Amino acid sequence: MAEHESLEYGKADFVLLDNVSMEEFMTNLKLRFEKGRIYTYIGEVVVSVNPYRAMNIYGRDIVEQYKGRELYERPPHLFAIADAAYKAMKRRNKDTCIVISGESGAGKTEASKYIMQYIAAITNPNQRAEVERVKNMLLKSNCVLEAFGNAKTNRNDNSSRFGKYMDINFDFKGDPIGGHISNYLLEKSRVIFQQEGERSFHSYYQLLRGAPDSLLRSLHIKKDPTAYNYIKVGGQIKSSINDGADFKAVADAMKVIGFTGDEIQTVYKILATILHLGNLTFGVDGDVTLIENTKLVSVIRELLSTKEENVEKALLYRTVATGRDVIEKQHTAQEASYGRDALAKAMYERLFCWIVGRINDIIEVKNYDARVHGKNTVIGVLDIYGFEIFQNNSFEQFCINYCNEKLQQLFIQLVLKQEQEEYQREGIPWKHEGLLSNSL
């Protein structure tokens, strides 16, 4: 085990603790963190503590230290887990999976990026152009997904607001040849509402603060986020995020991945449409509900390339089916507001799913025949957004909290119970007490 680190850094593996209790666990974790050791093992699991600062432990020299090494040959590190998963896949010719879970702000998204970077760094020693292209697209996809699926929260400037499972496909030599992304539970409620101190998705602020003036004019929007009801709460927040630079990075990443100029322009139009939707207001003239700022209807019509009457009909009426009859019923002003918000959320979710689908179309494995090219294996990386216990009352957060609980139970079952079963098989006496029994 990882005993070669001196004791001044504490126990590198919690399995080595003399007394397994919560107090001992936290004392060891604190000691290692204070000594600059943010990773600690529990058997084949690595516990990570977010330092909330850049650390020089992910460079090429560190990659070389972990490349091809067994799990306990080097001090605990995320790279050791990534390398173990990669070696297991190559040696056994079987699919493997890395699960990343934890509280919101724990560093899960950064961990998934470092895992991807490590796998990219240790593969394709012959520098085949096609493999390099695939690796570059897989890495760039993170940049795009973060822009449209991440947001600043009270605990984290780059919090994932969706769940992501990425499959990385490898050929029989162990080089990446493609991938596939599945997304879950995008936090749609964030499109129309954010808590005090939080922002909506990064994509809005990047567009407003990073797009050239000519693009903003064509979209009929201005640089000030506080001018738009859906994002004005976040528009007032000072943060370290450089939205202008991020806009350019995301646009460049979309081009590298393979989005066409027209597709990128359409994405901007949909973002602008949602911003304009949030500024629509409704009034009543007798029994008739009206849109008060009709100029915005004309703008939305232009951005969506449709007719004004279609926009008005979508916002002011709903279709009701009663038996064989289908009738159109006019909204009240309040119902029209609810419908507008539902439309904005649905548009953003469909945009996000389309972006994920477009990335998948480009990075998926094509023309691969196992009879010719050998078996194709997979490493899966699961990164879901974190457990939150403060006043985030969205349905998606409730679901993700439940998912995190289930993942924790899976962790307990696969790791701790396996240890107990091994003790029983080898006739080693043990008893339920301390941290272990509490977890179970």
Automatic annotation (TrEMBL):
One of its GO terms (biological process) is actin filament organization. Residues 9-440 form the Myosin motor domain. Keywords: Actin-binding, ATP-binding, Cytoplasm, Motor protein, Myosin, Nucleotide-binding, Repeat. It is found in: Cytoplasm. One of its GO terms (molecular function) is ATP binding. Its main location: cytoplasm. InterPro entries: Kinesin_motor_dom_sf, Myosin_head_motor_dom-like, P-loop_NTPase. It holds the Pfam family Myosin_head. One of its GO terms (cellular component) is microvillus. Belongs to the TRAFAC class myosin-kinesin ATPase superfamily. Myosin family. This is Myosin ID. It comes from Sander lucioperca (Pike-perch).
